[in-house]
Write a structure and sequence with these properties.
Immunoglobulin-like; 2 helices
Length: 188
């Protein structure tokens, strides 16, 4: 019997015993995250950077911040399935976060991926100010996933991902104490 198997079996047994003492697990006592941060890094061959703050609101998750180093115009902006940044082109982040297996669409469409945030628009200096609301989304469901900026505009209709082109920046959605930092100083 391998050591890994023994440790895994012990962990499973311990978890089972702990939960067996209480047949019901209440989320009333669990404090869910209310704030998160994303530090965007460029994919290979790009110079994009930025910092995004995510905050749980009654309406959904509010995403604010700045993205710099992108060409002027619209760029697809999405929450992706995984927080895996190993691939230099960002492909290891997977597709759009889509827990309900719906078709891609704009953030205001009746049916769309939970990760469909539409587009951000960069000014002539290559900076985009972000202020998006992911309606109905719960922050705790996206911790550990990623935010991706694409090279082209999302057309909000093409399947499966809006024909937004290559990924030019991405970052993992992580827990944060937003009160400790100012977004403008963090993104410089």
């Amino acid at each position: 019997m391998s050591v890994r198997f023994t440790i895994a079996a012990a962990a499973t047994l311990l978890t089972t015993l702990l939960f067996a003492q209480n047949d019901t697990v209440s989320t009333d006592d669990v404090k869910v995250p209310q704030e998160a941060v994303v530090v965007l890094s460029p994919t290979q061959g790009h110079q994009v950077a930025g910092t995004l703050l995510l905050k749980q609101t009654k309406e959904g998750v509010r995403v604010t911040g700045k993205v710099s180093g992108i060409k002027p115009g619209k760029h697809g902006f999405h929450i992706h399935q995984y927080g895996d940044l190993r691939d230099p082109q960002g492909k290891s982040a997977g597709g759009h976060f889509n827990p309900e297996d719906t078709k891609h669409g704009g953030p205001d469409a009746a049916k769309h991926h939970a990760g469909d945030l539409g587009n951000i628009t960069a000014n002539a200096e290559g900076t985009a100010t972000v202020d998006k609301l992911a309606k109905g989304l719960k922050l705790h469901l996206i911790i550990g996933r990623s935010v991706v900026v694409h090279n082209h505009a999302d057309d909000l209709k093409s399947q499966p991902s809006g024909d937004a082109g290559p990924r030019i920046a991405l970052g993992v959605i992580g827990l944060a104490d937003i009160k400790q930092f100012n977004v403008t100083s963090a993104s410089k």
